[in-house]
């Protein structure tokens, strides 16, 4: 009974986290400020900066993305926000190499990261050592850097974590990488791509009979509700506060479970005569 109640309570906390994310991504979590520069102007600046980087050969020229059709828009947003495609606000979106790394038992200082390395809170819980040669081979297209987002595209779809600044990492299997444009808060982007309805819209495009997965093309074309930069900052600050609140609830529930189980064990021992 205790375990069932415990699981139910943790499931409710998970739903609460997603409710906060959903409100945030729909522009309902924090108030809009009419003094903020509209997101449409921010998007123009992002496009201009990308064109500059392409001209300087610091970015590869991208295939032009199709205009957004009204029937694609999943929900209404405040006027200060604007719909755009994820590919418009990322400098890079790349898939992992389609090969399995040869992981090692010794620490080499070079690591792969895959879906088994990320938990539901977006924390990196393990790293998988590989050789320097494997690392170089797997980073030919792009060397991951701090605040790049690693996103699970198969298995635990929707989990995401930041590349830390103190580790030399490459992509393992079943993950992809997003690098936000400079005018986008990486924290906002990470929150957006971990919101449940966003993941569900991606999975709806996967109509195959095999294991569920997300295609890079669908990610690039996926729709993002882009707020003005100051609103992104307000959203991130509020979400961090709310996620800490959820962390506190989880800790209290786990502590209560431990106490209840200890009490139950004591009662059983006494009932069985010590």
Structure commentary:
The protein is an alpha+beta fold and 274 residues long. It is 41% helix and 14% strand. It contains seven helices and nine strands, in the order ααββββαββββαααβα. The protein has a four-stranded antiparallel beta sheet with strand order 2-8-5-6. The chain has a three-stranded mixed beta sheet with strand order 4-3-7, with helices on one face. A hairpin with a 7-residue loop joins strand 5 (149-152) and strand 6 (160-162). Helix 1 (2-25) packs antiparallel against helix 7 (229-271). The two termini are 23 Å apart. The mean pLDDT is 91.
Cα distance, first to last residue? 23 Å
Structural class: alpha+beta
Shape: globular
| Main sheet properties | 4 strands, antiparallel
Task: Note the run of SSEs as H and E.
Answer: HHEEEEHEEEEHHHEH
Strand order of the largest sheet: 2-8-5-6
Poorly predicted regions are none
Helix percent band? 40-55%
Q: Note the beta-strand portion.
A: 5-15%
Query: How many strands in all?
Result: 9
Arithmetic mean of pLDDT:
91
- Integer-rounded radius of gyration: 22 Å
Q: So how many helices? A: 7
């Amino acid at each position: 009974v205790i375990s069932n109640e415990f699981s139910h309570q943790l499931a409710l906390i998970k739903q609460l986290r997603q409710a906060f994310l959903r409100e945030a991504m729909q522009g309902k979590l924090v108030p809009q400020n009419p003094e903020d520069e509209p997101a449409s102007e921010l998007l123009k600046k992002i496009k201009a900066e990308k064109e500059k980087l392409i001209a300087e050969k610091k970015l590869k020229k991208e295939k032009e993305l199709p205009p957004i059709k009204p029937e694609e828009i999943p929900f209404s947003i405040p006027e200060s926000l604007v719909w755009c495609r994820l590919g418009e606000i990322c400098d890079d979106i790349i898939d992992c190499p389609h090969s399995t790394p040869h992981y090692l038992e010794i620490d080499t200082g070079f690591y792969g990261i895959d879906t088994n390395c990320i938990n539901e809170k977006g924390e990196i819980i393990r790293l998988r050592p590989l050789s320097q040669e494997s690392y170089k081979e797997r980073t030919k297209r792009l060397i991951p850097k701090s605040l790049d987002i690693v996103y699970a595209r198969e298995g635990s779809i929707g989990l995401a974590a930041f590349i830390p600044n103190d580790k030399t990492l490459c992509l393992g299997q079943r993950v992809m990488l997003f690098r936000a444009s400079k005018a986008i808060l990486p924290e906002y982007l990470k929150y957006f791509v971990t919101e449940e309805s966003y993941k569900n819209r991606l999975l709806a495009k996967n109509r195959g009979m095999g294991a569920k997965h997300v295609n890079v093309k669908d990610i690039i074309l996926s729709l993002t509700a882009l707020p003005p930069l100051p609103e992104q900052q307000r959203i991130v600050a509020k979400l961090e506060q709310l996620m800490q609140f959820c962390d506190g609830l989880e800790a209290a529930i786990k502590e209560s479970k431990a106490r209840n189980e200890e009490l139950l064990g004591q009662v059983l021992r006494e009932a069985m005569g010590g």
